[in-house]
Amino acid sequence: MKKHNLLSNLYTALVMLFLYAPIAVLIVFSFNDSKSRNTWAGFTTHWYTDLFHDEEIISALVLTLVVALVSSVIATVLGTSAAIGLNKMNKKLRSVFMTLNYLPMVNPDIIIGVSLMLLFTYLRIEFGVGTLILAHITFSVPYVVLNVMPKLRAMDKHIYDAALDLGCNPLQAYFKVVIPEIMPGILSGFVMALTLSIDDFVVSYFVNGPASQTLPLVIYSQTRRRVTPKINALSTIIFIVVLGILVLNNFYSIRKEQQLRGKKGGH
Amino acid sequence: MKENILISLKNVIVEFEDGHRVLKGIDLDIHDEEFVTFLGPSGCGKTTTLRIIGGFAEPTEGDIFFDGVKINGVPPYKRNINTVFQRYALFPHLNVFDNVAFGLNVKKMDKKIIARKVKEMLALVNLSGFENRNINQLSGGQQQRVAIARALINEPKVLLLDEPLGALDLKLRKDMQTELMRIQKSLKITFIYVTHDQEEALTMSDRVVVMRDGQILQIGTPQDIYNEPVNAFVADFIGESNIIDGVMYEDYEVEFAGQAFKCVDKGFALNERVDVVIRPEDIIVGDYETSPISGVVESVVFKGVHYEITVDAHGYKWLIHSTQSQEVGALIGMNVKPSDIHIMKKMEVR
């Protein structure tokens, strides 16, 4: 038993090592006082200060965040409305549209990228922030639908009737009752759209304009010229921010669950 | 209960897209301040009728009137009617106070007035002090009370209740029945109640509407329905009954179980085949030699107030409710008073 335990612990440790070793290296070398990628030359934070003085990176970061926020807000609105509409359809029609919804998700990014590029060219839309946002909305909407749909299906459909019964018109009923009820799904759809957008390289590569380089594109082009540890520093910051959001989110949902459980039966 | 008619359904027909008729022509008048119950097995159309009155479904044909005004096509939020839904349909993201206050908040009523009204309403349903509780912290019975308060705070003229007590245990259900009756009497509004539980219907209602297959079979007071059911289906649904094939010899004389009996019914054709309905509690157990019907006791089950005895007489299983127990296997006699023999026309076979 003990031996078995040791083995399984070792296995877990190995998995963790493989997963996190690259990130650990990245973080360590972001503090390395040398441009070398394999020798340690002492501790420094100057890559971080350099980073914040690099106009190209900072403007790319701002652009990435703007594109991500705008596209995911729009995608969330579109996806949520789509899910509500789909939920009202009869079974046959719904399954047709759900399949259409899944298609872009399984479609390789490169095909989405190329096809969007061709479409924008055909429609003579100038490549830039606009096309980036449009493209990101396109690939985010299906994920929002996917996150909202289960919440709608699980919702007691009588609560919509109840809202009408209590004096709401259909629009009020959605905003006062249905939307709050499916909010967890909407939020997770929004977060997913946000991360997909920040993360995206392939699609953005095809639809960006000369003056609209998102962060992944800038990092890629910089690594092709010269790899500076600034990239390490930037990646470290992104990693820490994402980790922080995840931890907060988990902490919040655990606490909420405890609240629900702790209070139940207490009357 | 007042004389004036509040809600009127005229030949209401509801047909689904696939052509299935859920309601096959409902005619019904409901009075002001009346407690009406739609009673019937599942799928009989009672919930659909309720949804039509509430505005959640539209009749394919026929009209619905509220206070003399036709309200076909008027959406639920413009009807002076509120509903207590099956399984409550409370809003989980709001606490008790906000659930109850919901309707008044939609009307943008003054916050102070809302607070006072919610307080009064929670007192009416015995939930004072529960304002800040979450919905999922409440028991089934408490959720039920919140649902009732949430509907009643809007001061509707009619409250619709769709099997509201179905999810509660027996003891709680009895308590809630009494409480609903008290609330209805004190607020002086019309209650339209849907249930498949005959005992609930008989206990609470001024009038019972018995439905089957999208049609109304009988409308009447609980006493009428129980004592004078129009056919064997109503008789059987309203309470356990012995339903036997019989032949009407002449007025006031019927033959069943191989014997002629005096009865109080007349107006049937000569030798017309009829259903004879006899309540289990109306059968008098006696000596087998002197009684008109005799049989062998098959089982005896103690039910608290009475024993439920099954007797096999020439292949028909008679159900008897008696305060006296019998030996299983014993030969006993059975008799019925003429006034306890209910003769009904054979139901048309659909």
- Average residue-wise pLDDT of chain A: 88
Helix and strand succession of chain A?
HHHHHHHHHHH
| Order of strands across the main sheet of chain B | 6-7-8-3-9-10
Report the oligomer. heterodimer
Helical content class of chain A: over 70%
Question: Do you know the CATH topology of the largest domain in chain B?
Answer: Rossmann fold
Classified in CATH, the superfamily of the largest domain in chain A is MetI-like
Q: Compute the number of structural domains of chain B.
A: 2
Q: Give a count of the beta strands of chain B, DSSP E runs of length 2 or more.
A: 20
Low-confidence stretches of chain A: 263-267
Helices of chain B, by number, come to 8
How much β-strand is present in the residues of chain B? 25-35%
Gross morphology of chain B is: elongated
Q: Between the first and last Cα atoms of chain B, what is the distance in angstroms?
A: 36 Å
Question: Mean pLDDT of chain B, as a whole number?
Answer: 91
Taking the sheet with the most strands of chain B, its summary is: 6 strands, mixed
Tell me the strand percentage band of chain A.
under 5%
Characterization of this structure:
The complex is a heterodimer of chains A (267) and B (350). Chain A is built from 11 helices and no strands. Chain A is an all-alpha fold. Chain A has 2 domains: 55-230, MetI-like fold, CATH 1.10.3720.10; 237-267. With 350 residues, chain B is an alpha+beta fold. Chain B has 2 domains: 5-232, 3-Layer(aba) Sandwich (Rossmann fold), CATH 3.40.50; 240-345, Beta Barrel (OB fold (Dihydrolipoamide Acetyltransferase, E2P)), CATH 2.40.50. Chain B is 24% helix and 35% strand. Chain B contains 8 helices and 20 strands. Chain B has helices spanning 46-54, 96-106, 111-124, 140-152, 170-187, 198-204, 222-227, 232-238, and strands at 5-15, 21-31, 35-39, 61-66, 69-70, 81-84, 158-162, 190-195, 207-212, 215-220, 242-250, 253-256, 259-262, 272-278, 284-286, 293-302, 307-313, 316-322, 331-335, 342-345. In chain B, a hairpin with a 2-residue loop joins strand 4 (61-66) and strand 5 (69-70). The longest helix of chain B has 18 residues, at 170-187. Chain B starts with a strand and ends in a 5-residue tail after the last strand. The interface between A and B is medium-sized, with 23 and 31 residues.
